[in-house]
């Protein structure tokens, strides 16, 4: 038998199992919200749940009724239950809703209580008395069950609790007995917390088809404001946003804007959007406009420095986001037309630079990596064949005359790139053109033709 | 009342230096030019127009010392040096060779109807770059711009202290312009000697100065 790679633990040295926490010992406090008027639809509830998640991470939807919030973990942060209720009340006042709030140690008890009255039951010992006084209607049990209980002379939850458990389960059903146990905290009650969507989506429908920029601007501004509000509440931000115009007679027009850094501010989202719609061609009048974000990312806020910035920096660097200009220009012209440049350690001139789409990574190269020889400040995107000894064509200026390369200076041979199949072998020369311009030509050693590759601007 | 008190009196105006000493400027890197220009360098608040007949006469080299200095300021302040509608690729190794920090260079290529860039889009981009307050310098190659457009840019550059350089075709030299500085690059200044810049400029307009030519 092969030896174990590690010695076996002696008997009795295994870590002891942690004692299980009894359900009753795990304190929970549920705040139930009952919206009385107007009756909430699912969209309104989700919107409210989005706000409620700024108060607690555990929010449960109660369809057609309201919400359940687990607030035990938030009491200390918000300085008590009263403060949480005040914040909720302020939000509901803005939404012009009438409502009722109730608190209980179990979610089912909170739901039953709030259907009847506003009351706060914080202590487990007071729970049985509080829900016992409730009429049976608050349980929302099926009508057939409630009718049967009524015929038995039972009118409140307390009446049910007085019956023998076995008899109640046999006559009314085990499910109803379980409900009573869950309400009293005798059985665990797990509610599925509402998970917020990973993206935001809003649509604005227009009364008539339109191509009016002012209408689009107003609609976009409203949507982006609501986005900002929700993003702030959820402490999230976005890096990408999609804009769609729906038409009646043709296919949807859509565009996408990517931000250099994740954003959540209204102005930074709206500015590139407005720049884009001002410039984009719609396939026809639009009947609706929608905006959808990419996957939401956690909000990251730069920590303030230990030492205060100088006045000049504090007034500008903090006030103006670094990438706002980039995003505005990209909004109008597209990402490919707005970019940075970087230097690449490469002998072949056309490969010695690259475009940089994302945030800058490197600054100035140090002296050891900079090219030793002088390079032109302008590089032609593609070398231009300017002069051939065979054809006797004229040089850059277009004037016929003597051989422009006779006065060439600073010859240099660049031979590189054999490893990737794009090898070059060129003789470079700096030439002063007929009009005094300083040019960078090379002669291809294979074809013996001259190409203009750069201009010393 | 002493002479210093008189000179500092707001109602007393001198035609030469007084009033320009406080002009925000950045050194050009050329002593002769610095001595001539108000404030001792390129005017940072306002637009400068450079008229060129063709490329390769030193239109970028003349700006390189100032651009290198500004790029380091841009790094500190997290701002940009914006190149709008450049006719060729600004070559990164050459810029680095002149001491320009590449991380703050931003290139913008407004789309054009055929080849090149739409003048309206180019002017829009210039105005955005100036007014964004997030750029320390804007270089733009502008073929067409009327006086109204130039005045808007001039006001924006003055307000937001953004060094704005417009490269214009030499045909536009007769056009009226509110620019603080206008000069033309001349042929014949090019020198094969790489120790000298070999740039010949002819100042057409400079606030508080008479037109003058320089061989740098």
Describe the structure.
The complex is a heterodimer of chains A (457) and B (216). Chain A has 457 residues and is an alpha+beta fold. Chain A folds into three domains: 26-184, 2-Layer Sandwich (Alpha-Beta Plaits), CATH 3.30.70.270; 198-338, 2-Layer Sandwich (Dna Ligase, domain 1), CATH 3.30.1490.100; 378-455, no CATH class. Chain A contains twelve helices and 17 strands. Chain A has helices at residues 42-52, 81-94, 107-116, 127-132, 143-151, 157-162, 165-171, 174-184, 213-234, 266-279, 311-316, 324-333, and strands spanning 30-37, 59-62, 66-70, 98-104, 119-120, 201-210, 236-247, 253-263, 286-293, 297-298, 338-343, 353-356, 378-388, 409-416, 424-432, 438-444, 449-455. In chain A, strands 2-3-1-4-5 form a five-stranded mixed β-sheet, with helices on both faces. In chain A, helix 10 (266-279) runs parallel beside helix 12. The longest helix of chain A has 22 residues, at 213-234. Chain A is elongated and about 115 Å long. Chain B is an alpha/beta fold and 216 residues long. Chain B has a single domain (37-215), classed as 3-Layer(aba) Sandwich (Rossmann fold). In chain B, 27% of the residues lie in helices and 25% in strands. Chain B has six helices and eleven strands. Chain B has helices spanning 3-7, 31-36, 64-77, 92-97, 119-131, 147-160; strands at residues 25-26, 42-43, 46-52, 80-84, 89-90, 105-108, 135-141, 163-169, 181-186, 200-206, 212-215. Chain B has an eight-stranded mixed β-sheet, sandwiched between helices. Chain B has a two-stranded antiparallel sheet with strand order 1-2. In chain B, helix 5 (119-131) runs parallel beside helix 6. The model of chain B has no long low-confidence stretch (mean pLDDT 84). Classes of the chains: A alpha+beta (457), B alpha/beta (216). At the A-B interface, helix 11, helix 12, strand 11 and strand 13 of A face helix 3, strand 5, helix 4, strand 6 and helix 5 of B.
């Amino acid at each position: 038998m092969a030896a174990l790679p590690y010695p076996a633990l002696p008997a009795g040295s295994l870590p002891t199992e942690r004692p299980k926490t009894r359900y009753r010992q795990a304190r929970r406090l549920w705040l139930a919200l009952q919206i009385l008027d107007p009756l909430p639809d699912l969209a309104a509830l989700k919107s409210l749940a989005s706000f409620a998640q700024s108060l607690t991470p555990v929010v449960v939807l109660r369809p057609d009724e309201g919400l359940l919030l687990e607030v035990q973990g938030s009491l200390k942060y918000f300085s008590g239950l009263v403060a949480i209720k005040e914040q909720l009340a302020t939000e509901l006042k803005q939404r012009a809703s009438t409502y009722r709030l109730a608190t209980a140690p179990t979610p089912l008890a909170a739901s039953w209580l709030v259907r009847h009255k506003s009351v706060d039951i914080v202590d487990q010992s007071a729970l049985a008395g509080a829900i016992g006084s409730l009429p049976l209607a608050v349980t929302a049990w099926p009508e057939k069950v409630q009718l049967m209980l009524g015929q038995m002379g039972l009118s409140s939850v307390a009446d049910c609790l007085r019956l023998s458990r076995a008899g109640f389960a046999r006559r009314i059903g085990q499910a109803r007995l379980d409900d009573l146990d869950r309400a009293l905290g005798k059985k665990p009650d797990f509610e599925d917390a509402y998970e917020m969507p990973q993206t935001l989506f809003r649509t604005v429908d227009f009364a008539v088809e339109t191509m009016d920029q002012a209408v689009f601007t107003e609609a976009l501004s409203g949507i982006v404001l609501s986005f900002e509000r929700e993003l702030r509440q959820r402490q999230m931000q976005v890096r990408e946003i999609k804009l769609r115009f729906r038409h009646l007679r043709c296919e949807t027009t859509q565009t996408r804007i990517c931000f250099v850094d994740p954003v959540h501010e209204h102005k930074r989202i709206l500015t590139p959007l407005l720049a884009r719609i001002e410039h984009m061609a719609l396939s026809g009048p639009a009947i609706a406009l929608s905006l959808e974000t990419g996957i939401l990312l956690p909000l990251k806020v730069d920590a303030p420095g230990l030492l205060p910035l100088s006045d000049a920096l504090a007034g500008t660097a903090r006030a103006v986001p670094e990438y706002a200009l980039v995003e505005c220009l990209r909004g109008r012209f597209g990402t490919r037309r707005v970019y940075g440049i970087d230097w690449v350690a490469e002998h072949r001139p056309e490969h010695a630079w690259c475009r940089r789409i994302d945030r800058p990574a490197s600054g100035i190269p140090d002296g050891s990596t900079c090219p030793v020889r002088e390079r032109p400040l302008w590089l032609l995107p593609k070398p231009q064949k300017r002069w051939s000894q065979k054809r006797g064509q004229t040089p850059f200026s277009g004037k016929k005359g003597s051989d422009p390369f006779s006065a060439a200076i600073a010859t240099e041979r660049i031979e590189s790139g054999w490893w990737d199949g794009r090898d070059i072998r060129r003789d470079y020369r700096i030439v002063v053109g007929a009009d005094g311009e300083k040019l960078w030509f090379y002669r291809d050693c294979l074809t013996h033709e001259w190409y203009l590759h750069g201009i010393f601007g | 009342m002493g002479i210093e008190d008189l000179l500092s009196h707001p109602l007393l105006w001198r035609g030469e230096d007084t009033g320009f000493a406080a002009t925000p400027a950045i050194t050009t890197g050329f002593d002769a030019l610095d001595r001539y220009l108000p404030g001792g360098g390129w005017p940072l608040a306002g637009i400068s127009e450079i008229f060129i007949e063709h490329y390769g006469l030193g239109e970028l080299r003349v700006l390189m010392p100032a651009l290198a200095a500004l790029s380091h300021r841009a790094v500190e302040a997290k701002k940009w040096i914006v190149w709008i509608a450049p006719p060729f690729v600004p070559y990164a190794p050459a810029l680095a060779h002149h001491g320009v920090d590449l991380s703050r260079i931003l290139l913008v290529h407004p789309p054009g109807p055929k080849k090149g860039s739409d003048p309206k889009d180019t002017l829009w981009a210039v105005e955005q770059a100036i007014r964004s307050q997030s750029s320390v310098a804007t270089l733009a190659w502008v073929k067409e711009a009327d006086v109204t457009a130039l005045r808007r840019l001039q006001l924006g550059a003055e307000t937001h202290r953004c060094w704005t350089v417009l490269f214009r075709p030499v045909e536009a030299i007769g056009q009226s312009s509110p620019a603080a500085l206008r000069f033309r690059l001349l042929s014949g200044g090019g020198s094969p000697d790489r120790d000298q810049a070999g740039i010949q400029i002819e100042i057409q307009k400079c606030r508080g100065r008479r037109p003058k030519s320089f061989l740098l």
